């Protein structure tokens, strides 16, 4: 009889545990779902940090690009000014050469006139 009572008690305990087992399984599944979500969150957080770093790098490159564009503009202005100066120098060089030839001719005429006057 005692065994039968123990058996009955154990059956009651087992029956009482069935809802607990169901609850345990549900909580275990929920925990697994949260763990997977946490992993997804970590991946997304890592991607966000990566994108933030890329944005900072992009901003720095944008600033560098602006500085380089300004330098290019300055260099182009210098090139235009130098080309203009070179053009002016070419004209002056031609004028100087023309005056030099004229000076040489006048010196030759002067020398001829001096020789004729000395004779």
Helix content: over 70%
Average of pLDDT = 95
The biggest beta sheet is recorded as: none
Which range does the strand content fall in? under 5%
Could you tell me how far the N terminus lies from the C terminus, measured between alpha carbons in angstroms?
Answer: 171 Å
Helix count, DSSP H or I runs of 4 or more residues: 1
N-to-C series of helices and strands? H
Rg from alpha-carbon coordinates: 50 Å
Per DSSP E runs of 2 or more residues, the count of β-strands stands at 0
Unreliable stretches covering 5 or more consecutive residues: none
Q: So what's the overall shape?
A: rod-shaped
Class derived from helix and strand content: mainly alpha
Protein name: HOOK domain-containing protein
GO molecular function, one term: microtubule binding
InterPro entries: Hook_C
Keywords: Coiled coil
List keywords for this structure.
mainly alpha; rod-shaped
Folded structure, characterized:
The chain is 98% helix and 0% strand. It starts with a helix and ends with a helix. It is an all-alpha fold and 119 residues long. It is built from 1 helix and no strands.
